[in-house]
Amino acid sequence: MSNQNKCLSCTDCGVVSCNSGQNTYPEFCLTANLDQKELKEALRLYGDPINRKIAVAAAEVEAAFYCKYTRVQEIIEFAHRIGAKKIGIATCVGLIEESRIFAKILRINGLEPYGIACKVGAVEKKTGLNLAEQYIMKTGERMCNPILQAKLLNKTKTGLNVVVGLCVGHDSLFYKYSKAICTTLMVKDRVLGHNPAAALYTSKTYYSKLLNQPQNK
Ligand code: SF4
């Protein structure tokens, strides 16, 4: 790989031949330049019984219900196929109503939802995070507590945890501390109705500013 190309990656690729099966790879291609030992190691890990169960269930759900099931339905199907009965819901309080509906749907499908809201513990932001005043939006505002959400779900021994609308970064901490495997039903985007892809879909029209300039600090 030349120095000129050393920072290029799949997001700079115009052919995506690793998917199409065509034999034309760019010079910087991560498949064409792959260390075969790394590939072998990744494939070996799919032989781990738990990894295999997850990977097979994911592939089966994708193929069996391709463009037929919504993500809500796919999560239910995935949970059944990996044998998870107790389903943790790590929810934002702002999306508690959506989580209630999701929990109801899980119950109808024979699963046992257990939801924990992000403000669990009711710790004030100022106390818990020693945050600068300018980042506290109202007096007595409670902190989001994704570490506690994860730990309480760990204690409940959930088989699968589902994230519903945790903030950027709070979700990172939740994933970090969750012992059960995680998937995401909703990601938070307060501006775009929790559909962050809309910023990308409209990046050549209404959100062209994203491509034209760095955002203001
Ligand atoms: S692996 Fe190679 S062909 Fe596939 S997207 Fe990346 S650079 Fe392109």
Walkthrough of the structure:
By secondary structure, this protein is α/β, with parallel strands linked by helices. Helix 3 packs antiparallel against helix 4. Helix content is 41%, strand content 10%. The protein has a domain at 39-186: Rossmann fold (3-Layer(aba) Sandwich). A 4-stranded parallel sheet has the order 2-1-3-4, sandwiched between helices. The longest helix is centred in the N-terminal third of the chain and has 16 residues, at 49-64. The two termini are 36 Å apart. It has helices spanning 17-20, 36-45, 49-64, 71-82, 96-108, 125-129, 146-156, 170-177, 197-201, 209-212; strands at 86-91, 112-117, 160-164, 182-186. The model has no long low-confidence stretch (mean pLDDT 95).
Topology summary:
Elements: H1 17-20, H2 36-45, H3 49-64, H4 71-82, E1 86-91, H5 96-108, E2 112-117, H6 125-129, H7 146-156, E3 160-164, H8 170-177, E4 182-186, H9 197-201, H10 209-212
Helix pairs in contact: 3-4, 7-8
Iron/sulfur cluster binds at residues 10, 13, 15-18, 25-26, 29-31.
Notable characteristics:
217 residues, alpha/beta, Rossmann fold, four-stranded parallel β-sheet, 10 helices, 10% strand, binds iron/sulfur cluster
